[in-house]
Amino acid sequence: MKKHIEQFFLYRHRFIIGYILLAVAFFLLLTLLPGVAPTGLSETEMSSVVEASNLESGFVKQGTIINLPYVALQKGSLGLFGLNLFAIKLPSMIIAVATAVFVVLLLNRWFKSDVAIVGSILTVLSTAFLFLATSGTPAIMYIFWLALILWLGSKIVGNENVHPMLVIMFFISIALSLYTPYLAYVALAIAVAGLLHPHLRFALKQLKIYQLILCILIFVLMVAPLVISCILNQTTLQSLIFANNLDFNGFIANITNAFAPFFSFSLAYSSVYLAPLFGLATVALVIIGVLASAGKIYMSRNTIVSLLVIFSIVLSGLNQNVAISIIIPIAILSAAGIESIIEKWYTLFPENPYAHLLGIVPMVAVMIFIISSGLSHFIFGYHYIPRVVNNFNNDLTIIKDNISTETTLVLPKDHKNNDFFSLLEKYDGYQIVEKPKQAKTDQIASFEPIFNDKYGLKQIITSPKTRNSDRLYIYSLVTEKGEE
């Protein structure tokens, strides 16, 4: 009977088909979502763009080295495509694709294929992951480095024939992850584990002396700029591993505020993250995964998950941005929950392959429910929840859609986002002045009303995203006869 089922083409190639469909769906969402939700940029995204733009050859001395891999990639994207939503978000999209691949590989290392593919779909198509993939900030780096390091570690530990390239990649990943704030604690934990865990020591002993020296040399070369920058700038080291003027009450408040939007089912928070970021069905799977893993804490997988949860919670007390790294342990625990459900179902019908096949139906239904409800919450939430929508603005899109480079943009120094919008001059050739009298064009534009006899109001561009809907005022030169 089982052999009869295995003859079906769809059954034999179900995993390949599943991952192809996952890849197609993921790329479609990456293409469509930036123009749908959230429609605009957050303050964090603007700050990231300014930081990327200011990255110069002297970044080591200047101390502008934090999140260097991401910032350098974003600077290159801006140089190629100019200052626009696509260029700002492209680095996150590229890194998200790589992260999705490593999540899939990691889950396939720790779970059976049927569990891994379901867990991969629920993680990669989750609203939390899609938000990071379409947000132009370095936040995506937390789950990228964790997924990559865990996958490489899983390939090394317990493998009697470790390829030297895997170990080299592992050292490179650890070195580059140190540029991301607070991941130094992960590197420290790995170093301690390497000294204590016999499998890790065995993997290192398999390397030839010259290979080990090469790994150490590569590691030192990659962290050298970071070490030099920390020596020259104390604020760099503080930003990477400490917090400013934080007491115990502030520490607890940071943890509470960081995770509040993730699991709140009744309140909306003033955050770039929707509440809840993880749906009730996902939380239920996580709880099942925790219960299933509770009796198997000795397994390396469950030990790592426990440490990652502690890392996410404790370090979010230092910086709330670290809380998003909880995505990786949630992905693993969700897969563990799915594994537990499938195993329970199989034990009910141990010799009936048709029952096994029938068990896929409710699992597919749950997947469709989680993904569809999550996407609808994501799209509509970023349009209709004021406390979330207010954290984004589409002023850049308004400028690009309504004025050309022949129009002068009046941008006072005291404007809240002066550093960001002044980059229009650098990347797109817009003319920017502080005062209307400095303009040399027949048309000017401003975020605030201008009272100047030389120019007359031509048009007011509004936005439905803000309570004060007047976003851009466009003026034309007034002739001597009073005509525009």
Kindly report the average pLDDT value: 86
What structural class do you assign from the helix and strand content?
Answer: alpha/beta
Overall number of strands:
7
**Distance, first to last CA:** 84 Å
Query: How would you characterize the largest beta sheet?
Result: 5 strands, mixed
Tell me the count of domains. Answer: 2
Major β-sheet strand ordering: 4-3-5-7-6
Shape category? globular
Strand fraction equals 5-15%
How much is the radius of gyration in Å? 26 Å
The percent range for helix content is 55-70%
Q: Stretches where pLDDT falls below 50 for ≥5 residues?
A: none
Description:
The chain has helices spanning 2-6, 9-12, 14-32, 43-53, 59-62, 68-81, 85-110, 113-124, 127-133, 140-156, 164-177, 184-196, 198-205, 209-232, 234-241, 248-263, 280-294, 300-316, 327-348, 353-358, 360-384, 386-389, 395-402, 418-421, 423-428; strands at 41-42, 392-393, 408-410, 431-433, 443-446, 455-462, 470-477. Helix 6 crosses helix 7, helix 16 (248-263) packs across helix 18 and helix 17 (280-294) crosses helix 19. The model has no long low-confidence stretch (mean pLDDT 86). The chain contains 25 helices and seven strands. It has two domains: 2-389, no CATH class; 394-477. With 484 residues, it is α/β, with parallel strands linked by helices.
